[in-house]
Each structure stands twice: as C-alpha cells, then as structure tokens.
Amino acid sequence: YHAKHHQAGFAVFHSDMNRRAYERFQLVSFLRQAQQAGELELHYQPQVDLRNGVIFGVEALLRWQHSQLGMVQPEAFISAAEETGLIVPIGAWTLAEACRQGALWRQQGHPELRVAVNVSALQFEQEDFVDVVARHLDETGFPPEHLELELTERVVMRNVESSVARMRQLRNLGVMISVDDFGTGYSSLNYLSRLPLNVLKIDGSFVRGLSPRSPNFPVVRAILGLARSFQLEVIAEGIETALERQTLEELGCCLGQGHLFAPPCRAAEVFPPI
Ligand code: C2E
Ligand code: MG
Ligand code: MG
Ligand code: MG
C-alpha cells in the first residue's frame, strides 16, 4: 500500500512539473506573438497631489489581452519576458506608446501631465537604450522633462558604475528618473547620494495599513527624511484608505497613487473626452 501510495504521489508530482513546464512554454510562445497581434495595451494609473486630488501624472502599466488566456497580469508575464529577452521589443513598444499617448493628452489640454514608464533590467542594459528613448521622444514630440523612467533598486544595483553613467545620459536628455518599490530591494544608502535621481517611490507594502501607530510609520518617516536630505520627490504607491492618505500627508508626503484615487485604467477613462 505504501509503495503504491508513494508511486502515485510521485506520478502526480511528475505530471505537475510537466504541466507547469508546458504552461510556461505556451505562455512564451503566445507572448512572442502578442506584440504583433496587437494584444498589448497600456493602462494608466493617475498620480495625484494628496492635498487636493489633482492629477499631476500617470504611471503606464502593461496589460496583455490574450484570446485564450484572457487578461494576463504583468506579474504573470513580465518575468518570462525578461528571461526570454522579449522585454526588449515589448519595452520599446511601451515607451513609444506612452510617449504617443502623453503627447496626445498635451494636445488635448493637459500640458503639464507627466508620464511614468517602468523599465526592466535587460532593457536598461541595452547598448542603445538611451537612443531608443531619445528616438521615441523625438518621433512623438513628447517633452523629455515630462517622461519619468522607473527603475528598481535591483536594476540600478546590478552594476552601479554603468547604471550611473547611463542615468546621467538619460538626465542629459532631460528625462526624470525614479526608484520604484523603494525600500524593498537590497540597497546601500550611500548609493542614493551618487545616483542622478529625481523621485523615490515608496512601495505599497509600506503604505498598507499605515497609521500613526502602525509599525510602518517610522519606516515611512525615515524614507521621507532621506528623500528630503537628497532633495528627491516622493510618490507613495498603493494608497487604498483615507487613513493611509491622511497619515502620509501628516508626514509631509504630498504625492501618491492608489485605488483610493483610481486604479490603472484605459487612456480614455483617465481624462474622459469633453
Ligand atoms: P509597479 O511598477 O510597482 O506598479 C504598481 C502596481 O501596484 C501595479 O500593479 C498597480 O496596478 C498596483 N496598484 C496600484 N494601486 C494599487 C492599490 O491601491 N493597491 C494595490 N494592492 N495595488 C495597487 P500591476 O499593474 O499589476 O504591475 C505590477 C508590476 O509589473 C509593476 O509594479 C511593474 O514592476 C511591472 N510592470 C508593469 N508594467 C510594466 C512595463 O510596462 N514594463 C515593465 N518592465 N514592468 C512593468
Ligand atoms: Mg512602477
Ligand atoms: Mg512600485
Ligand atoms: Mg512592483
């Protein structure tokens, strides 16, 4: 009985591995066609001034609508795109699309709107990354000062020397640079003084449940103190409740995004046509 049970368990384990390998294989082959097939779209999450709710920018977030798989969330495909290198052409498309939409919003009467785009490690490390950014800005006419590139600590820390050089080139174009998910990666504090940064984005995990008595309170206060010393702007992510918003404001954080204000939505929903 024991042996049989064990064998059955092994068989289940084995087929589970096969199934996952197959699903992965299928995901990657679907992903290869996604861009050509026009299945990718960008949604935009408003970023607001917490004091008055006025939108100052949007973060572009990738969505994949597949006929069989349905709506695939980034968490389910970005890592596969990174591992296969597909993130490079996908990322270039994302940049182009975000700049195109940003330029259109300007024409439609939102001249100060900023657009933030997430950049992955492989994309950032491409020899021609800065040229790609410059070309898309040029082709769309979107002003560089209104484009913000979000890098994670992990991306920056992979090779600090070359990251700093590349970030300088981007800053020379006029583009803004933010550190996404700040506080969740492993990073040393001395790099903050060396990087040509504009913005720290406080990760949602620090914002969740934030109140004057929550354990995250001193952490968020410390991040805001750091940002002040380095003269960086701060944007809090994942704000869901009025208490989180109020606590952030009391700590002196006046910019943020989250479901309390708006989820990521289609371009036409951010600013409905008048
Ligand atoms: P991220 O850049 O940190 O984006 C913030 C994530 O938090 C988004 O998830 C957003 O939908 C979600 N979010 C916004 N407000 C709230 C809230 O109030 N509560 C909660 N719980 N979540 C909130 P999303 O869109 O699923 O994206 C996940 C991650 O995938 C992003 O994290 C980013 O790292 C990556 N990603 C998304 N689009 C792109 C892209 O175009 N390129 C690259 N390289 N990565 C992307
Ligand atoms: Mg981001
Ligand atoms: Mg983030
Ligand atoms: Mg994230």
Automatic annotation (TrEMBL):
Transmembrane segments: none annotated. Residues 24-274 form the EAL domain. Signal peptide: none annotated. This is EAL domain-containing protein. The lineage of its organism: Bacteria, Thermotogati, Deinococcota, Deinococci, Deinococcales.
